[in-house]
Amino acid sequence: GAVCIPIFLPLTVLFLICVNRSPDAALLQWPPPLPSLDQLWNPTAPLLLLGWIALHAFLYLLPLGKISEGLVLRDGTRLKYPINGFHSLCISGALLMLLLMFKAPLGHLFEMMLPLAVCAIAVSFMLSVYLYLSSFWAPPHALALGGNTGNPLYDYFIGRELNPRIGHFDLKYFCELRPGLIGWVVINFGMLMQEVELRGSPSLAMMLVNSFQLLYVADALWNEEAVLTTMDIVHDGFGFMLVFGDLAWVPFTYSLQAAFLVGHPQTLSPMGVAATITLNGIGYYIFRKSNSQKNQFRRSPTHPSVSRLETIATATGKRLLVSGWWGLVRHPNYLGDLLMALAWSLPCGFSHLLPYFYVIYFTVLLIHREARDERHCRAKYGLAWETYCRRVPYRIIPYIY
């Protein structure tokens, strides 16, 4: 996997963009539509991408919002993080509105998708090389437990250092929620503006996709502090896997539905719209409530909102929730995520498989991540985890899986 994924995932991103731009948008078409070299490169693309990253690095350093501490590290210390991602989103939105006032051709992002993706992939490789080499100057306690096997390819892929920083600038935390996630919203908006240029106004399907995904990103940034307790921040090293996911995979594959609608407009019925909004609302409610409950319990188990929930004691001194959302299934946040993912694809209709790529991929990803969580928790909590699994037998979907 450490050898194949850095080769095939970048090719997958480029393949999906090419298929999306083709008239048939057929995932199983063979041979697939191949771009010419002039379609892959545009001298404006690296300027846009590096300028975008620089803008968000500047916003990251602004004294906005509060400073929060992460979980305790192996050496007993806590790192400090600026909680100002939502400010960055709002400033980015204001800049977009300013560009609209000056009639900037934001719809041109549709034509720039391929060269921008190529540049994002190149930046991912270069940053990953830097992270791998610089990790050899990090102290032993700063290394990730799973990223130091001695196999250079695997360690480059998974990440040797847990929290690589340049001064106080945390590279992993910055990439996790800033340029790629907000970039996803900007690309979506560019697709909407391209539809306006082609048809005079945005379609209802396009507005639904933009709204649903903007809500998801805004929620992530509004609750930015919660990311400090996630597996990505707490356990995983920062290597190619996360770098590429943050900077290339998220903005250029999560925006497939909006890009699809530019070339393949859909007409929605009032009943279909209502059902899709309802599905997204249910998914969002489950996702937000369960994540908030977990984060509150991790940070302050005695808080009134979680202190009455039933728990199981473990040998590590921590306790496992067996009631509330986490007594329904072991990963209720994954359930909410999957419901939202389906709602994002439904406005694209049922004539093509491509808009459902995200749902299919995300289901595989969450099942794989759940298996990783299972192994980690079983090793960490032992008998307490087995007791928890008997009490909460379903992993993601109640009575099904």
UniProtKB/TrEMBL annotation:
Localisation per UniProt entry: Endomembrane system; Endoplasmic reticulum membrane; Microsome membrane
Alphabetical list of InterPro entries matching this protein: ERG24_DHCR-like, Sterol_reductase_CS
A Pfam family per the record: ERG4_ERG24
Residue intervals passing through the bilayer: 45-62, 83-102, 114-133, 238-262, 268-287, 308-329, 349-368
GO terms assigned for molecular function: Delta14-sterol reductase activity
GO biological process, alphabetically ordered: cholesterol biosynthetic process
This protein's pathway: Steroid biosynthesis; cholesterol biosynthesis
Keywords: Cholesterol biosynthesis, Cholesterol metabolism, Endoplasmic reticulum, Lipid biosynthesis, Lipid metabolism, Membrane, Oxidoreductase, Steroid biosynthesis, Steroid metabolism, Sterol biosynthesis, Sterol metabolism, Transmembrane, Transmembrane helix
Catalytic reaction equation(s): 4,4-dimethyl-5alpha-cholesta-8,24-dien-3beta-ol + NADP(+) = 4,4-dimethyl-5alpha-cholesta-8,14,24-trien-3beta-ol + NADPH + H(+); 4,4-dimethyl-8,14-cholestadien-3beta-ol + NADPH + H(+) = 4,4-dimethyl-5alpha-cholest-8-en-3beta-ol + NADP(+); 5alpha-cholest-8,14-dien-3beta-ol + NADPH + H(+) = 5alpha-cholest-8-en-3beta-ol + NADP(+)
Enzyme Commission no: 1.3.1.70
Coiled coil start-end: none
GO cellular component: endoplasmic reticulum membrane; nuclear inner membrane
Family according to the record: Belongs to the ERG4/ERG24 family.
Reported function: Catalyzes the reduction of the C14-unsaturated bond of lanosterol, as part of the metabolic pathway leading to cholesterol biosynthesis.
Protein name: Delta(14)-sterol reductase TM7SF2
Phylogenetic classification of the source organism: Eukaryota, Metazoa, Chordata, Craniata, Vertebrata
